[in-house]
Amino acid sequence: MENKNILIIGAKGFIGSHVTDHFKQICGYNIYECDVMVDYIANNYFQLDPVNADFQEIFEEVNPGICINCSGAANVPDSLVHPYRDFLLNTANVYKMLEAIRKHSPDCRFINLSSAAVYGNPVSLPVKETDMAKPVSPYGNHKLHAEMICDEFYRFFNIKTCSVRIFSAYGEGLTKQLFWDLGQKASKDKTISLFGTGNESRDFIYVKDIARIIELIIHKASFNAECFNIGNGIEISIKEVAELFLQLLKWDGTLSFKGSARKGDPSNWKADISKIKSLGYTSSYTIETGLKNYIEWLVEKKLV
C-alpha cells in the first residue's frame, strides 16, 4: 500500500505555503508541515530550531512517503554578506534531511527545491538541465551543492531524490524581489529607478503553477537524482514586465533604470522546459493573470 504521508519542510514560506495549500486540497494525502515559525493552530505541525535544525525525530515520527523541501534562504545579495548562514540553510540542512531519511524513512521520495541560480550566466538560451552549471553567487553555489548531495544519497544509499530548478517565481505571499519592490515604490512615489538596463530578462513562473508541477513530478518522475527546470520557457525583459506590472497597478509615474547590475545577478534567463512538458505540464496562468492575482493580494492586505 502506497505511503500517503507528505512532509513539507518550509511549509510557512512563500512557495511552501502554496505547495501545502495545493496538497491539502487533494484527497487521500496526510499533510505534515514543518518550519521555524510558531503555530498553535495547525495540526500535524513540527517547529524547527532555526539555528540547529534536527530532522531525526520528525522523520521517525511521520515516516513520510514524500518529502518536499521548500526551506532555505532565497536571497542572492545576502549570500554574499552572510555566506555561512546561506550554506547552513541551503546545503547543510539538505544533508541533515537526507541522513534522517536514510536512517528512518528509506522509502521516502525527496523533492529538493533548487534554483536556476545554479546556471549562472548561461552560454546560450534556452538553458537545458544538461548545460554546465556555473553559479555566480554563493547562493547558486550552495544550491548546486545541495543537488550534488541529492545525487550522493541516490547513488550510494538508493534514496529516491530529485531537484527542481525554479526560475523566477512570483505570486501571492512574496514580499521581496522585483514585483514587491515595484509595488512598494509605486505606492510612495511618482518616479521609480531600478537596477540594470531593463534589457535583462527572466523566465517567470506563477507559484500555483510550481505546486502543480511538483504534483506531476510526484506521479511521473523517476527520482533518480534528476533535475527539472521549473519555468514557462518564455523570456521577458525586466523593462517589459515592470511596465506591465505598473500598468496593471494603474500607476502613472516615470520608470527608469540605473544601468548598473547587482553583483551575483545573471543577465538573461530562459528555461528549456521539455522535461516538465513530457510529464504533462502546461501553464494555467499567463504573466498578466498571475500579476493581477498578485496585485489583488497586495491591495487586499493593504501592502500598496
UniProtKB/TrEMBL annotation:
The family database entries (SUPFAM superfamilies) matched by this protein are listed as:
NAD(P)-binding Rossmann-fold domains
Show where the NAD-dependent epimerase/dehydratase domain sits: 6-231
Could you tell me which Pfam families the record lists for this protein? Epimerase
Q: What is this protein called?
A: NAD-dependent epimerase/dehydratase family protein
Q: Which family does it belong to?
A: Belongs to the NAD(P)-dependent epimerase/dehydratase family.
Q: Which organism is it from?
A: Niastella soli
PANTHER family assigned:
DTDP-D-GLUCOSE 4,6-DEHYDRATASE-RELATED
Q: Which InterPro entries match?
A: Epimerase_deHydtase, NAD(P)-bd_dom_sf
